[in-house]
Design goal:
By secondary structure, the chain is of the alpha+beta class. The protein contains three helices and five strands; from the N terminus they run αββαβββα.
């Protein structure tokens, strides 16, 4: 075991000592310039709503989920409700077009569950991040 430690120490010395501990510049992916392609809504049952969103230029699933959430919180306010609760989101990407199929419940009172969203706060965040809403 000691021989392995000595060989590792020698290899680090030859490789420049502790070079691996030096700060590394982050890799730039360029500016985030999404193209939001639209939102469709479908009322499933009373307070259960399905949102379909599509966009280009998403960095990852989170961008698509954020777009769907913005649709949900704005929809809740339009319908006179103050809250939304995330149920599920399915995301796909094909040929550079990202699509999301999300289900939320909307309600006037704070719903039970961990994924609840105050609709007014959510809309404010969407405006600050330039994400379109319904």
């Amino acid at each position: 075991m000691q021989q392995v430690a000595h060989k590792l120490a020698a290899a680090l010395t030859l490789a420049g000592g502790l070079a691996a501990c030096e700060p590394v510049e982050p890799v730039s992916q360029g500016p985030f310039e999404p193209s939001y392609l639209g939102i469709k809504t479908r009322l499933l049952d009373g307070d259960l709503v399905n949102f379909f969103v599509s966009m280009r230029g998403a960095r990852d699933d989170a961008d698509v989920a954020d777009y769907a959430q913005c649709a949900a919180v704005q929809y809740a306010l339009i319908r006179g409700y103050g809250f939304a609760r995330h149920v599920r989101t399915q995301i796909n990407e094909r040929n550079g077009v990202w699509s999301g199929d999300a289900v939320y419940t909307i309600s006037a009172a704070l719903p039970q569950g961990l994924k609840t969203i105050d609709a007014e706060v959510g809309v404010t965040e969407c405006i600050e991040n330039a994400i379109p809403r319904v």
